[in-house]
Predict the structure.
Amino acid sequence: MITKKRIVGISCVVILMIIGIGVLSWQLSFRNVSFVLSDEVESVKIYKHAETHDYTGDARELAAIDKNKTIRLQDGEYEVAPSGKNVDTSRIIISVDNDTKEIKVEPGFTDKYLNDLLGKEKASAQQVIKDKYNKIIDSYIISDGQLLLDGSWYITTLSPPQTAQELMVDSHRVILQRVDNRWKIVAEPSLVFKYDDYPNIPKVVVNKANMYSIN
């Protein structure tokens, strides 16, 4: 015969088991994540991502890192706020899950810095285009273009001259990357680029190139 005391005892054991499983599950949801900062990043602050906050500081700061470091984070979404000279300080949303071991923080530079850098890099980048398409380049106008991310990506357009009869002309986009201090064409001139065709080019670069206009 099961006594009242025994029922209470069994119930306590079951409750403790449920609590234990919950605690273990909670502990297992944390993992070690290594943050690797690019050279231009001096430090980063990490916040729990909250879709509703307005970036005015209401998200709780979880950690501050001033060099490559490994910390423990629970599965979920976070915001990384980088800082450094000429660094784009926009917060970067990251996701942590069971497969996450390393997060590279590579925010790129501010628009102002990239615009200043463009004045130094434009001539050499455009010369690569002129050399590559020397037989037809005289029939096109190369726009000033734009540097992206860390300044190693350059997008521009090739357009035929406008005429009184043809005010709207098709512009072909082109993407260059600076590797080992030399510019090279990584996406041949095209009206539009597809992400799947250029897996080695950051999606933000492909997207910016597709949206880039000389107007």
